[in-house]
Amino acid sequence: MSIQILFSFLFLLVASSSYASVQDFCVADLSQSDTPSGFPCKDVKKVSVSDFVYSGLAAAGNTSNLIKAAVTPAFTAQFPGVNGLGISTARLDLAVGGVIPMHTHPGGSELLVVIEGTICAGFISSANTVYFKTLKKGDIMLFPQGLLHFQINSGKGAALAIVSFSSPVPGLQITDFALFANDLPTEIVAATTFLDPATIKKLKGVLGGTN
According to its UniProt record, where is this protein located (predicted)? Predict the structure, then answer.
């Protein structure tokens, strides 16, 4: 009896996990609430070719900011067609001196393709091994899921890259903002980072943190 129950459970598990794969697509119904497995599917009768085309990456992002960089996403919220497909993309603009600070994508791996300019990019493994390289036009670099990584415009002109992700919603956490753009008390930040309180307060002032 226990073997029959186990077999039935495994059958149901396989059947339920493969249900999405038997559909051609699952365009996000953005009028519904998001779920851990993505948005519910839009009624196929209401799906059109516009759900599979997105023109939002044509224009350069606004790099007039602290980091002199802009990321223009084509995630589920902007491009409903990627819902459930395990992919998404974004445009990365870096002005001269621009930087995407150390950050992670907890929900997916990243692949970067340099379109114009020169970008110094790298990541740090869980063993604290550093992998970085100066990339030129046409170069591609991979950043594994969840690992800290960065991009810096190391050239004399603006840089442009297209990044793709192994998730329609890869997530983002920027280390500097996580530490200094909130109300985590300075003494706790000092104890966990070994930075002096004066430096921490200065960074909090720049990034909008308190305490």
Answer: Secreted, Extracellular space, Apoplast
- Residue closest to 169 by CA, chosen among 48, 112, 84, 53: 84
Question: From 2.40.50.140, 3.40.50.720, 3.40.50.1970, 2.60.120.10, which CATH number describes the 1-170 domain?
Answer: 2.60.120.10
Q: Which two tokens stand for residue 54?
A: 């997105």
Asked whether residue 116 is marked as a ligand-binding residue, the answer is: no
105 is in an annotated binding site: yes
pLDDT at 6 over 60: no
Tell me: is residue 122 an annotated ligand-binding position.
Answer: no
How far separated are the first and last CA of the chain, in Å rounded? 61
Rounded distance between C-alpha atoms, residue 111 and residue 56, angstroms: 19
